[in-house]
Design a protein that fits this description.
The protein is mainly alpha-helical. It has two domains: 13-188 and 201-205, Up-down Bundle (Growth Hormone, Chain: A); 209-323 and 340-440, Growth Hormone, Chain: A (Up-down Bundle). It is built from 16 helices and no strands. The chain has helices at 12-32, 36-41, 47-75, 77-97, 101-115, 117-127, 134-163, 167-187, 210-217, 222-251, 255-284, 286-305, 317-325, 350-380, 386-415, 418-438. α1 runs parallel beside α7 and α4 runs antiparallel to α6. It is globular, with a radius of gyration of 22 Å. The two termini are 41 Å apart. 51% of the residues are buried. The model is unreliable at 1-6 and 195-208 (pLDDT under 50).
Amino acid sequence: MTQDTSTEKLDFKRILPVLVIVLVDLMGLSIIIPLLPLYAARFGASPIVIGILQATYPLMQFVGAPILGRLSDRFGRKPVLVVSQIGTLAGFILLGFADSLFLLFVSRIIDGLSGANIATAQAAIADSTTEKTRTQGLGLIGAAFGVGFVLGPIIAFIVLAASGQNYQAVAFTAAAFSLASILLTSLWFKETYKEAADPKASRIRRPFSFGALREALNRPGVGFFLVLMFFYQIAFGGYEQLFSLFTLTRLGMDARDTSGLFVLAGIFIIIVQTGLIGRWSKKKGDRWLVLMGLGALSIGLIGTALTPAIPIPWYEKAKVLESMAGQGEFRVSIQSINIHLPDETSKGWFGIIWLLIASFPAALGGGVLHPAVNSLITKASDKNEVGGALGVSAAAYSAANAIAPLFYGALFQWFGGPVPFFAGGLILAILWFFAPRVVK
């Protein structure tokens, strides 16, 4: 009797539309990540207000994901995807026309609620895979995330260079990608929910509840990994979201310069995730990956905090202020910009070279920790509870993403730019000290 191997191979053609849609969605999102703190600064936002703005998107995503997930179970994946993508498009368009801090917040609220469509895309992957191929399918979603977060800053860099640092052009470019994802979903994506072979598939992204969190925290082994996931993302999420504000105030780097750094870090993360992490996991094990990731990220964050306050050689304070003030009808008064910029008396290469060196261990740790911790969570969970455990892990990750910019923004404003990065590195160093005693 021959075994049917059709269920053991991933039907790539079936999930390809979902992967492309996620890739296009993430490119639109990642285009504006290096830009947003500087966008807010032009309207007089302080570091703590910028932190609150950055927290708005993940907080709304945390609220919207369970709602969209339940709606997709009732009405199907495709209509929910299209409606949520229309909301994302509206958020980007509003961002492009924003002439006040209030409209920036409204645009991020709309985009955050709509941005929870990623959960619907993951549900579509679950519908289109079997138990044996589901991990591979969801892993490809992660790969699409990585590629999108590399291509987005590249496109932002090109748009900023071509438009003379026009922030509106970047927002409207993100809107164009969102429109493309709507067309792809409408014309290419086929409904998957009614065709799902496994009626339990929709539970792969179980809605978050505090009862589920308490149950997971009490499970032997899993609880520490969830704590690890939460505090790792507090440290790394704040680093990502306030990095451009740090480079602006420490080294005088504008949005285009910082986008270039995001590109380099993204390429390095893709190399780690696609070419190295699998090899390391097989040879060294996930425990080694977690310990190495914690140590590397801690060193990277503390190294970033110690970056010398030496502006880049091409820094000109007047030009940076002009680019932040904007152009034409969207221009604001330079006097309204409430961010301290370095002076031009001690420009040089040492600051940017130091930051580049510190960025590599930070990117290495950030690249390996998330998949390694989630892998250990699945191994510590009961076979029938893997989906639920990963759902709680995703909820902890989203909650940390909402808290991280508030934590970093408050420390940034009250104690100075280096302090939040040093605090994040210290948190990870403490976790690194305890992890060998807990992770067997």
